[in-house]
Write a structure and sequence with these properties.
Length: about 350
């Protein structure tokens, strides 16, 4: 399928100071759209000027949340070139989410092609400056107008772009995380392992309560026993306890992060023992008590690698590594961003030039 391009006649002014971008505050001049209609399949891939969508008020995504999304980034290399980081993994995960939400599978190669073409059209929006990138948000929404509950027969696949800085205002400084006891994010058999808006809607209440108390994010426990660590919601989590690096195993309610996967591969290539296994909160508390908790950090496309300096567990405050970024988190951050920005060699073949 050929992707057509209609350029805007009224380009917007771009943010001048890349150190003040924040996350998700600006959108570029163009977007990609493709339709799905039952009987026709996915069709009419096109790049058009960025602008509001016209939706029927009965569009099913507005009522029942039949929606999936992805997040990846484009980076500027020192030679001026543009690269993506493992975009094939995002599109494979998008299809995993599609399968769970009864959304027809997309052509992954076409989707990567669409990202490349859209980023090329809006390449002047890729910010320059430490810690900045062009965040790419592919998403699919059900637009069929029905208030009955069933999979939609009309959908839209859209990609938008946003020049961003760090996701957390803390940047690479350690974040404070609130361990959530009352609410749960997901259970096995639910949707926690895929990227769909409902998982994030489920997290808002706890997130809001935590931020009112001065915490950046919440740490979710498993939805059944409320005993095992799952994820942070915008990041997967890793703990280093007496030399062992542990991240919760993907057992059906945790998102399989692409940054998580890349960090595991990097750590193993450096000789670290990384175990994907159930990790009880009690094990982390105990390790903190006897001085064996060495580091904790989160990983995610938006968050990159984010050290955790404090965990609030009920009335207890656990300070990790003196609230300083740890050696492992720093090395992961430097290596990952080095590869993504083409400042260091990429022995894994992760970056894809546009
Ligand atoms: C990402 O890391 O790309 C995410 O999707 C997290 C988020 C901003 C919701």
């Amino acid at each position: 399928m050929k992707i057509t391009v209609q350029l805007t006649q009224s380009p917007k002014s771009k943010p001048q100071d890349s150190s003040k971008l924040g996350f998700g505050n600006y959108y570029t001049d163009h977007m990609f759209i493709m339709n799905y209609d039952e009987g026709q399949g996915w069709h009419s891939p096109r790049i058009v000027p960025y602008g509001p969508l016209s939706l029927d008020p009965a569009a099913m995504c507005l009522h029942y949340g039949q929606e999936v999304f992805e997040g990846l980034k484009a980076y500027r290399a020192p030679d001026g070139g543009i690269v993506l980081f493992r975009p094939d993994k995002n599109m494979a995960r998008l299809n995993l989410s599609n399968e769970r939400l009864c959304i027809p599978q997309i052509d992954e190669e076409l989707a990567v092609e669409a990202v490349k073409k859209l980023v090329s059209v809006d390449k002047d929006w890729i910010p320059e400056g430490e810690g900045t990138s062009l965040y790419i948000r592919p998403f699919i929404i059900a637009v069929a107008p029905h208030v009955g509950v069933h999979p939609a027969e009309h959908l839209l696949f859209i990609i938008i772009l946003s020049p961003v800085g760090a996701y957390y205002p803390e940047g690479l400084n350690p974040v404070k995380i609130y361990v959530e006891r009352r609410y749960v994010r997901a259970v096995k058999g639910g949707m926690g392992y895929v990227k769909t808006g409902g998982n994030y809607a489920a997290s808002l209440k706890a997130q809001d309560d935590a931020s009112r108390q001065g915490y950046t994010q919440v740490l979710w426990l498993d939805g059944v026993e409320r005993k095992y660590i799952e994820e942070v919601g915008t990041m997967n989590v890793f703990f280093k306890i007496a030399g062992e690096i542990i991240t919760p195993a993907l057992q059906g309610s945790i998102l399989g992060g692409i940054t998580r996967m890349s960090c595991i591969e990097l750590l193993r290539s450096w000789g670290y023992t990384v175990n994907e296994r159930p990790l009880a909160l009690a094990e982390v508390e105990e390790a903190a008590r006897n001085g064996r908790l060495e580091e904790a950090f989160g990983t995610g496309t938006a968050a990159v690698v984010s050290p955790i300096g404090e965990l609030k567990i009920d009335e207890e405050h656990i300070v990790i590594n003196n609230n300083q970024i740890g050696e492992v988190a720093q090395r992961l951050y430097d290596t990952l961003t080095g590869i993504q920005n083409c400042r260091i060699p990429d022995p894994f073949g992760w970056v894809v030039r546009i």
